[in-house]
Amino acid sequence: MTHPQVAAFSGDASTIRIVGHRGARGVLPENSIEGFEFVLSIGIDLIEFDVVLTKDEVPIITHNHRLHGCRVRGPDQRFLDGKEPKVASLRMEEIEQFDIGKLNGDTAYGQRFPYQIQMDGVRIPKLSDLFQLISQPKYQSVNLMLELKSDPDLVSDDAARERIVAVVIDLVRKAGLSTRTLLHSFDWGLLAKCKRQAPDIPISFLTRMKSNADEVGEDSSTLVTPDLDDTAGCIPDRVKEAGGSLWCPYYKDITNEDIARARDIGLCVAVWTVNEFDDIDAMIDLHVDAIVTDYPGKVQRRLSDRGYRWTG
Hints:
The protein is α/β, with parallel strands linked by helices. 30% of the residues lie in helices and 15% in strands. The longest helix is centred in the middle third of the chain and has 17 residues, at 158-174.
């Protein structure tokens, strides 16, 4: 059976999909409602984002397990300095005090996104805020790539990991979005829990070879993802055997042979995170199903120039 949300991420001969990464991180504050609204306004109907639980078990949309000092300001409007507070140690009422509208350009992470708009009054959204946004009738075609962030501190706490999955799935179901959501992670063990708890919701496997360096300012995925470097030629098969409907490899790791094999076994392929024109062109040449990007407008431009669609 083809799930409708998997079909939404799948391309065809004339279509390569665009997925707004954390909204449109290169242009607007990442993982913000403002960023998601921007992506939707330019005709992109696929959104990728990250979910972490607060101390009081509220799923919020943020990437790192600690509030990222270079993009989070306190009530005094100063960027956080020193030890970054862990999301799981804060209640939602505390999270609401922080502002994520600006990047600190003096940091290595801030320098990665020199064109990101600077704003005030941008809050860390709850998952329910995004659900409320896309539940509007005009956004009925929007589908979600919901990344469950795996806490390395909880890797041996099976009950806590089950609880994280249960809380998120419960919210997805209550919002009526189980047919518009992919559950997405680097942590294959966490995805196995998703499949057991919600066999009707497809799972999406993020991969990256450990030989690739971590991206500046990002929580590393190497602590929670399986080591795939010795099995590079058969990753699509491993994803399929684990119950995956979509494979999301790092764009530098993908080959023509991978794409051919994924197609043979009915696996959708969305590559992350592709931002430069040469790399966008390379992914178009491979004819992946979808391109995850911080700059959806750049991918729109290259697809348009080359005669491809991204919707429809």
